[in-house]
Structure formats: C-alpha cells, structure tokens
Amino acid sequence: MEARTLFPALDREIYGKPLIYFDNAATAQRPFSVLELQQRLCVEANGNIHRAIHKLSADATDAYEAGREAVRRHINAPARENVIFTSGTTASINLVASCFCERYLAAGDRILISEAEHHSNLVSWQIACQRHGAALDVLPVDEAGEISPEELERRLKAAEGRIKLVALAHISNVLGIVNPVREVVETAHRYGVPVLLDGAQGIVHERVDVQALDCDFYAFSGHKVYAPTGIGVLYGKREWLEALPPYMGGGEMIETVTFEKTTYAPLPLKYEAGTQNYVAAACMAPALEVARQLAEDPALQAAQREMRDYLLEELTRIEGLRLFGTPRDPERKIPLFSFVVEGAFASDLAQILDKMGIAVRSGHMCAEPLLHRYGQTSLLRASLAPYNTLAECETFVSALRRAIKMLR
Ligand SMILES: Cc1ncc(COP(=O)(O)O)c(C=O)c1O
To answer: Other C-beta atoms within 10 Å of 211: how many?
Structure first.
C-alpha cells in the first residue's frame, strides 16, 4: 500500500524543501477520504443533528451516528451507548475527572497517576482533587521511563481503599513506551479500583480492544488518528456511565425539563450537551478506516519497525545526545524519539530543522513534571507515522547533525 498518496499535505514544500513531517504525535495529517467527507457534509448535510425532521438534519444525524459506529467497531466497544463524543482527549479526561470525583472522591482520597502523564491526564485530576480535599499519588518512572506494576500494587495495598481511580497513559507522548496497561488494569481491579487509560497515542500505535483491556474508561482524540481536530472519544463501561452524574447541561442531554426538575437522556446523549462537531465525528469513519488499513499492512508495519530501529541506532551515535524512553524490551518502543543534545538548545535545533523542511516538536511536551524528573526544561521530539519513510529518516539524521554543528 502506498500510504503517502493518501495524504495530500505530504506533497508540500517548506522553504523550497520537501516537507518531512515528524510531528505526528502532536497531530497527524489527514487523508483525502476524510477531507472529501468533511467538505461533502458541509455542503450537502449541514443541518443540526438529532433535532429536526428535515432531510439535511436527518443526513447529518446518520453521518454522526455512522461515525460513532465506526469508533465502536474500531475499539470493540460492546454498544453505541459506551461511546461518547467529546472535543478531544482532554475533554474526555476532564469529563471523567469532574463527574467521577464529584460522586466518588472524598477528603483524604487519592487518584493515582504516573510521573509520565500529559498535563491533560494530570491537571484535570489535580483540579478535581483540590475541589474534594483529595491528592494525587504519583507512580514514578525509572531512568528508562518504565513504570513498575509491582510498585503500583504496593501503593494500592498501602492505600487501604483510599485510591479511588488509576489514570495512566497507554503510551507516553514523551517516552514513546507502551505501558503494561493490561497488567495495570488487572492489578487495579484486584483492589476494586477503576482505570482510565489516556489513549491519545495508544489509539494510533496499538490495536485497541477495550473489552480485552477491560479498562473502565479509554480517552482519545480524532486529530491524532487522521480525523479533524475538535473531535474526541470517551469510551466508558456502561455501569460507570450510568452511575456518574451528567457533565454539562444543555440541549440534547435531557429527556424532560421543568423548572423544578430535569431528567436526562439515555446514553450516550446524556454526556453530549449542545451542538456537537458532527462533521468531525462523521469523519471518524474514514479516518479509522485508513488507520486500520495502515495498521494491517505488513509491509508498512515492517517499515515502521525498520525506521524505529534505524533512528534508535543513529541518534544514539550522535555525540552528546541523550535519549529519553529506552524500554528494556525494544518492541515496546513506538517510533517516537525525545532527546536533548549537549551544547544545542532544543528550540534552536527545531528552528533550524524547520528551515530545512523538517517539522519536529520542541519544548516541555505538556509533561513538565516528567521533564523535571530528568532535570530538563525542553526536549526535541521526532514522532513518526506509517506514511514516513526510511529516506526521510536518513535526511533527518544528517540534517540534525548539520544543525548541531551550526550551534556548537
Ligand atoms: C498522551 C496524551 N494525552 C493527552 C493529549 C491531549 O490531547 P488533545 O490535546 O487532543 O486533547 C495528548 C496530546 O498530545 C497526548 O499525547
């Protein structure tokens, strides 16, 4: 399969150089099929969903619900009621942090997260904890960037029921390590503690089956998996979604309203107040179809591993380069590399690389506490997608070497 031909943005030139897009962990490029559906719906089916009888509204509703069904199938959720559309991973996590903590968190309780969480899986819980007199319990990562399931178990045991929820990244956006999430869920459940997985990166690089994972919640964004921005998903087990209070009040999430009392719509609409981003939600169907095709192409998967191994080897050869996220089992590393280079600021390197047509990320990667753990304030990150090539990796390594030379 020729993955590149599906994505028109990859044909761009930047400052006269062919674009090398290595910032896929921040957002992925969109395929023709998504762009075409987006435009077609805006022209042919621009009517508010679930509301009117007219044709435009009915077509928009059908497209929206087809997007939901595509998500349900992709993550193997049992029913459409388990799939809530939100605006992204951040919104999905905030929904759970707000509703779960309102019902189940009391003074002295704790929410357990890891040291390697994105701010959206950290600050959301911090805010909720502050509201309820609770605190974060932070599971450390070791020098390689790995968490210890044994340490998790030790903390759950010692907490004697005070840890009310575990919130963990499926894959860290800084370390690029696939966490042992099945083991974490199994361990947490033994102590009666539910688990939310931040799947912003996991949905892109792993085959996610929420029933096999047995997680209680799984959150992800559309834009990292080839859909537009402004759409995200919260998967939840039905018993939790039924038990939690509603999040936002407004249109669509109600059954009946009087000034005295409101009853709420059944799932999933209970959590979908107000006009939704139905065009983007509908685009989840073609986006996930592309994701599936890319994931099931053995040649592309082999190429991804080859690029990962190549970069791992070549980057560690560069003098003064320190790489973060080096799991003992290299198969648990995705093609995502965060590093610092002695004598060269990450932001300066990113700027020079940009002038060479190479898009990489620099900064704290929305994971400041993790950077502090490694004594850093800013990293450079190259994150790959299946449409990248080994030739691009080679160009990147030599461009990086040149950029470092300029700065030293
Ligand atoms: C691991 C992880 N969690 C959460 C997020 C937040 O996603 P969004 O900004 O789409 O809500 C990201 C985005 O980079 C991420 O990588």
So the answer is: 13
pLDDT in tens, 310-349: 999 999 999 999 999 999 999 999 999 999 999 999 999 9
CA dist., res. 316 & res. 339, Å (int): 10
CATH number for 376 = 3.90.1150.10
Ligand 1 first shell, C-beta below 6 A: 25-26, 88-90, 118, 120-121, 169, 173, 198, 200-201, 221
Active site residue 101: no
Q: Of 119, 201, 336, 379, which is best to mutate to test ligand 1, by the most ligand atoms within 8 angstroms of its C-beta?
A: 201
For residue 224, the ligand 1 atom closest to its alpha carbon is: 10
Range of the domain at 363: 3-30+297-407
CATH at residue 118? 3.40.640.10
**58 Cβ neighbours under 8 A, 6+ residues apart:** 47, 52
Average pLDDT along the chain? 97
Q: Indicate the number of domains in the chain.
A: 2
User: 15-54, pLDDT tens digit by residue?
Assistant: 999 999 999 999 999 999 999 999 999 999 999 998 789 9
